[in-house]
Design brief:
This protein has two domains: 1-48; 51-86. The protein contains three helices and three strands; from the N terminus they run E-H-H-E-E-H. It has helices at 7-14, 18-26, 51-84, and strands at residues 3-6, 32-34, 40-44. Strand 2 and strand 3 (40-44) form a beta hairpin. The mean pLDDT is 88.
């Protein structure tokens, strides 16, 4: 379920500080609306994850891609050396 919550509620749920929330808004890392009174409401729900979870997933993906590239390089190098011996 999607909903729009206040900055204070976002800070409480995701355990981050006010400046960090404003940075997320400024860099468009979160969806938000501005109310008529000029207050922010941040979208949370269906496809929303905390930055911490996102960063961890990104780190795992980078490590996996790096290992995959290394394995490909090793296999290609072995294949080249095998062709030279024929």
């Amino acid at each position: 379920m999607e909903e729009y919550i206040t900055i204070n509620e976002y800070m409480r749920r995701f355990k981050i500080g006010y400046k960090n929330v404003l940075n997320l808004i400024e860099t468009k890392q979160v969806e938000y609306q501005v109310t008529e009174s000029g207050r922010y409401r941040i979208k949370v729900g269906a496809n929303t994850v905390s930055m911490e979870m996102y960063q961890k997933a990104l780190e795992r993906a980078i490590k996996a891609e790096t290992k995959l590239k290394m394995l490909k390089d090793i296999l290609l190098d072995a294949e080249i050396k095998g062709d030279e011996g024929v």
